[in-house]
Amino acid sequence: MHELNWGLLIVVYLFLGGLSAGLFFAAGLANYLEVDGQPAYPRIARMGALLAPWPVAIGSALLILDLGNMLRFYKLFTHFRWESPMSIGTYLLTVFTLIAFVYAFSWLPEDWRRSLFGKVPATWKLVHRLNVDISAHRKTIAMVGFPFSIGVGIYTGVLLGAVSARPFWNTNLVAQMFLFSALSSGAAALLLAMVLNKREPIETHETKFLITLDIVFIVLELFIILPYLIHGTLSVLAVKQALWLILGGPYTLVFWVFFMGLGLLVPLAIEVYELAPSLLKGKPFHGDRNLALAATSLVLFGGFLLRYIFVYAGQASSFHKMGLLH
Amino acid sequence: MAMKKRRYALVIDSRKCINCKACVVACKAENGVAVGNFRDWINEDRQGEYPKLRMDFEPEQCHHCESPSCVRVCPTGASWQRKDGIVLVNYDECIGCRYCMIACPYDARYFVEETGVVDKCTLCSHRVDRGDVPACVETCPSKVRIFGDLEDPASRIHELLATRRYRVKEPQTGNGPQLYYLL
User: Does A2 map to a domain?
Assistant: First the structure.
């Protein structure tokens, strides 16, 4: 009798929102790193900055599409309810998206910006006033954006975690899990985009940086998922029963084989295999293109599946109907 | 003159329930609830094998909780609670995000496709406001439901809750449900 209130659109939105947060974070970080007084990864910083706003913009549009009353979405902005994670999330998401667009604008190459404004009618004076070079403020914008990108990454988890009626979600670990998954997806998406960009082939030190970043995030994610599982199975009955959904129940296969296996451990193994020789034995880092393609695609696949499993299994969990599942 | 404080609640003597579903039908007729949606329903619980067999019927609807999670999560304030405890949806403010449906531990809410908003039991607030009892209470042939004001010491439910043992469903969610099931 239990129907699903939130479906694939929400899954996709949670994934895209997290992806943008991760892209912004990785790009902003790359923008800050220097070697000998020179920016260490300027191309990563630019690629990430230019990509970051789009997923969340698309995701937010999907969110509006999912509403029962699409045209009333503006009401989200005419109210502020601090007790509602969705209300807080609305403002977080909006501010983050704006910052991400401003940041992308600050990274627009001069000629792109010129041709962009060239398409705007000359009579639109107000718009043309925006045609300024703000590239000098990149670091400031990134600094302002960091907390918002982290906030969006966390919020997607809090949206679910704050629901006390759904024992599968109702733990503080979901927020961190979604955050690290988001950061990992961002690093992976950035590497994927750099590898696919044939006009400016990726350099090995860039691959190494992004792979290292992704390993860190995946490991952090694992450090959250394992306690989630351990604590859940040791918790009160309702949580234990909810975890059955992925420990023997309908989402077991997709969780263990496709998410944990293909989406997390396999890409982690590939990335460690790539990085370990140079890290441990001082051998040169190769940065195999195909391995990078495989690992990053799998990470993105895993990030999507994590949202899918949580949105669907979470809604199936409850305090009073779990008995029927057994 | 200061308004008297009220807190409406339902006491349910489920052992009297014969599963005739008159309450479900009365609610649908009173509130024009569309086919496929329900504001109240009857849970059936079967136990044992014939001839050692037992069957329980337990009417349920919105619990009009003390601290309703549906109201808390609503991003626009469309889900709201009256001072007398009745939890309602302001249909003009609802954007149809269905967060409240997910947040309700009792799955007491439903989504209306035609209007794109969420709807639920109103405890027949339109009847209550003119001094009548909710339709489900009025129609019940075996007098399972007792409606009343917890703040009124002279009320029948006040007496029942003072003298009878009862339980509420899923109190661990912290919602403070206000459907009292007599034991």
Answer: no
* C-alpha dihedral sign at A286, A290, A291, A292: positive
C-alpha atoms less than 13 angstroms from C-alpha of A159 in its C-beta half-sphere? 31
For residues B158-178, average pLDDT? 93
Structure tokens at A49: 């900055």
Which chain B residue has the Cα nearest residue A70?
B95
* Residue contact A68–B118, C-beta within 8 A: yes
Rounded to 5°, the CA angle A143-A149-A152 comes to 150
Report the pLDDT value the prediction gives residue B27, as an integer from 0 to 100.
96
Ranges of chain A whose pLDDT falls below 70: 1-3, 321-326
Tell me if A182 sits within 8 A of A21, measured CB to CB. yes
Q: What is the pLDDT of residue A2?
A: 53
Confirm if A163 and A242 have CB atoms less than 8 A apart: no
Strand partners, B149: B8
Separation of alpha carbons A233 and A252, rounded Å: 14
Q: Which residues in A lie closer than 8 A to residue B115 (C-beta atoms)?
A: 68-69
Give me the residue from B96, B107, B173 closest to A67, CB to CB. Answer: B96
Structural domain count of chain B: 1
- Whether B1 maps to a domain, the answer reads no
Judge: B96–A72 Cβ closer than 8 Å, yes or no: yes
* C-alpha distances in Å from residue A244, one per residue of A6, A168, A249, A250: 21, 9, 5, 9
Cis amide linkage into residue A250, ω under 30° from 0: no
Instruction: Flag whether pLDDT at B173 surpasses 90.
Output: no
| Whether pLDDT at B3 is above 70 | no
* Nearest Cα residue to A174 out of A323, A313, A319: A313
pLDDT of B18 reads: 93
Token readout for A306 is 């994590």
* pLDDT given at position A286: 82
Q: What is the largest CA-CA distance in chain A?
A: 68
Q: What is the ipTM of this complex?
A: 0.89
Q: Which helix (H) or strand (E) holds B81?
A: strand B79-81
- Contacting residues of B for A165, CB less than 8 Å apart: 69, 102-105, 173
Number of H helices, E strands in chain A: 14, 2
Is B179 touching A (CB cutoff 8 A)? Answer: no
Q: What CATH number is associated with residue A301?
A: 1.20.1630.10
Residue pair A101/A141 in contact by the 8 Å Cβ criterion = no
CB atoms A5 and B173 under 8 Å: no
- Range(s) of the domain holding residue A237: 8-325
Q: What is the percentage of chain B residues whose pLDDT exceeds 70?
A: 98
Burial of B112: CB neighbours in 10 Å, binned 0-12, 13-18, 19+: middle
CATH of the domain at B95: 3.30.70.20
DSSP secondary structure code for residue A262 in this structure = I
Length of chain B, in residues: 183
Query: Which pLDDT does position A85 carry in this prediction?
Result: 94
Measure Cα distances from A72 to B76, B119, B138 in Å: 10, 17, 37
State the pLDDT at residue A3. Answer: 67
